[in-house]
Specification:
Length: 331
């Protein structure tokens, strides 16, 4: 039975990827320090090792205890806004932890590595939709930290024969359609859960960050991709690595939605108004990020199953309605 190490498997995208692996019968060890992730988000059936990636002794122990077919590396600091306030912290944590993890994997003989990378690599893109050949020019330290990790992995590929997949996520949203996992960040900064909570009256009115962008309605356009589709992209990338060399894929639905359109989708799906007001821009936010995922589709056969914004919002709504306190409801 294949066995995978999933760092950050107690987090939003990580926990959905763990579900996808378990659903097909794989064995999963989750390594998570639970500072951002939740114990209750680790699906039953996975083994949880509660440890920090900074603890290289523990990481080495994990590789000595189990033999892994691949590492899926989700654990990271991932907020654009916070990275603009603490750039060196973001760069140091994300780069050092990722490269040390890859080093430990290589030393243990595990030469398959899937990295959670980001659309933030592209900054203000030179063209839209964004394909893999677009200029890499991050406009915030978070994006730059992932660029540095991708470059480090490229060296490891050349020198050690590591095969890695760098998966550039656009905006992950939604939740497991079977209701087994959902999105629960503390603090929550993401648009979809904040808009839903505003509609549910659980949070104050949403602030729209900027109405003066060069977009049709003036608000930022993003590519919201269902987290379950994103999880499936990891399985597709893993299969690809077995037969081909390293790869870099942009992953989105290919449809852009503005902040106002997301608010509209939440109102449509829920039948409730989303109280909101206009505010200033958030530092580091590019106007438009929409993925061209043609390469992933063509090379792996990946096809999003939950592509529409309404499908994304519907599953996100169902989970947040059922779990008013997020994972705190589940112990
Ligand atoms: N956004 C917003 N108000 C909020 C949170 C987010 O207007 O309270 C906007 C944000 O500026 C961006 C989009 O919603 O254009 C998605 O932001 P999110 O933080 O969800 O994801 P990111 O694009 O930073 O990965």
């Amino acid at each position: 039975m294949p066995r995978y190490l999933v760092t950050g498997g107690a987090g939003f995208v990580g926990s959905h990827a763990v579900l996808a692996l378990l659903d097909r019968g794989d064995e999963v060890v989750v390594l998570d320090n639970l500072t951002q992730g939740h114990r209750a988000a680790v699906p039953a059936g996975a083994t949880l090792v509660e440890a920090d990636l900074a603890d290289s002794g523990r990481v080495a122990e994990v590789f000595a205890t189990w033999r892994f077919d691949a590492v899926l590396h989700f654990a990271a600091l991932s907020l654009v806004g916070a990275s603009m306030r603490e750039p060196l912290h973001y760069l140091a944590e994300n780069v050092a932890h990722s490269l040390r993890l890859a080093d430990a994997a290589i030393k243990a003989g595990c030469l398959r590595f899937v990295l959670s990378s980001t659309a933030a690599l592209f900054g203000d893109p030179d063209r839209v939709p964004i394909d893999e050949d677009c200029r890499i020019a991050p406009s915030n330290p978070y994006g730059d930290s992932k660029r540095m990790v991708e470059e480090g992995l490229a060296w490891a590929a050349r020198i050690h024969g590591l095969r890695y997949a760098a998966l550039r996520y656009f905006n992950a949203a939604g939740s497991d359609p079977a209701g087994r996992a959902g999105e629960d960040h503390d603090p929550e900064t993401h648009l979809v859960p904040l808009a839903i909570d505003a509609a549910l009256g659980r949070r104050p009115a949403l602030t729209v960050f900027g109405e003066d962008y060069p977009t049709p309605d003036g608000t930022c356009i993003r590519d919201y991709v269902h987290v379950t589709d994103l999880a499936q992209a990891h399985l597709a990338a893993l299969a690809r690595l077995e037969t081909h060399g390293s790869c870099r894929y942009n992953i989105g639905s290919g449809n852009g939605a503005s902040v106002k359109e997301v608010i509209g989708a939440v109102e449509r799906v829920s039948g409730r108004p989303v109280p909101h007001s206009m505010g200033p821009r958030r530092a580091g936010d590019p106007a438009i990020l929409v993925a061209a995922s043609d390469r992933l589709r063509a090379e792996t056969g990946w096809t999003p199953q939950h592509g529409s914004l309404d499908a994304i919002v519907r599953t996100a709504w169902a989970w947040r309605e059922a779990h008013p306190k997020g994972y705190a409801d589940r112990g």
